[in-house]
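User: Predict the complex.
Assistant: Input components as received:
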Amino acid sequence: MNRAAPAPLVDVHVHFLHDRCGRTDWETLNARRLAVGERIGITLHVGSILGSFGHTSPTYFPSPDDVTYGNEAMRAIEAAQAQRVRGYTTVNPNFTEHAVREIGIGADHGLTGIKLAASRRAGDPLLDPVCVLAAEHGVPVLHHVWQHRRGEVAGQEISDALDLTELAARHPGARFILAHIGGGGDWTHSLRALMDVPNVYVDLSGSGVDRGMLELCLECVGAERLLWGTDLTMDTGLAKLRALDAMGLPAEGLAAIRWKNAARIFRLSAAVFAAATQDLRPKT
Amino acid sequence: MSLIDHNALIGPYPFRRLPDPTPQRLIAEMDRLGIERAWVGHVPSIFYRDVAAGNDELFAALAPHRVRLLPVPAVHPAFPGWPREIARARAEGCPAVRSYPSHYGFAASESAARELAAACADSGLELVLTVRLEDERQRHWLDTAAELIGADVRALVRAHPEVRLLVTAADRALVEEVHFGATPEEAARIRWDVSWIWGPPEDHLAQLFRTVGRERFVLGTHFPFRLPESALAKLELS
């Protein structure tokens, strides 16, 4: 493997754990993610913590207390890894006042983005205050999505691309990220739904590595609305990165997917990428 | 080191477009990724009633590429003439045959499965099973064949004392269930491909290397369904 980063690389879909997630290996997993990130060449991990990940409240319906603790833990990781980690502020929109308060706290610490899990269907008006704040702060909303909702599933109030487009239409001044196009469900449905929705981006994360998916992403959404990511499986992220390399995209398109789109919508400073960019300079 | 892809297929799929599922494209991908040879099945044979006709297509398609692409024909043990497909596979020097209990409509515990296991054992052919073709969350509403479960694999490995199985597209839970639900002698006759096992940071594959044994796993890309880069990436990172 080429261990040196050939260009900056931003992982927009990352999860970290904390001491109240019910896993004794939480620190190992966090460290493992960062170590593997170095091998892949990830410049910046943009992560979130979904409450207690099911330990004391459901992953996709986190209690306000768990949301608060998770966000605090995420900010602690961000502070400890300032060169390579940024954090989303996670909210559960069923608790509107709490969600607004959490976003405010996040903003006090330099809000990067807002994470919505599957606590309330995307088209529901309860999400509106969250999206208004996202637009005001100029940060994107990463929304957990089940690609093509054909019914209800246990443990989540799932949304699909059509639900998200409904929300995006109500908030044209906000930017949304449709989560993990490879994360389960019919990705062709999502991509066709997003063709003419300019304020919805697509993150490429998820364990799914179907051939044909990247081609359809480029056809329907274009490199200018694609964001690279991993979610729970970094190996599949690396596979998609290599497949993109092999597809012969124009350099600018590849750079957009790797980091430039993320730098723009997360308003990341040039300093974040300075080290990676230096790697590109000829060695004398 | 010479890499062999033990889980590749060619041919179109009825429920989703698979880009260029041809032997030529498979070889191009192998060249790009440094894979020397591949065991190759035939996607339409999963859906044909008369599997022999699918095997005709597979052998014809691979004929110009036999040095690198080894045919793995399909066998439907509840359809007339299936022993001829076993004999043909042996005569053609195939390393294995594939069968799909859910798609063909036979139970892994019934007599047809036992006869298939015995025929494979007697012919020195490994029997390739496929847990899933696609993620079940994205399957077409007409695509209702059940995924293979641990009981199916256990039944088949117990069907004959010398049958050897290669189980493809299994996840960590299935591997563990079968491995620790089998005697050491049975487990030693089962190999697994890596195509559907998670890499880091959860590191399911690395965990299985430690608990089940690295020697039980083989490279499998699940081409043309999956990006072949994926299997190599997880091996590299595990």
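The radius of gyration of chain B is 17 Å.
Let me know if you want any component modeled separately.
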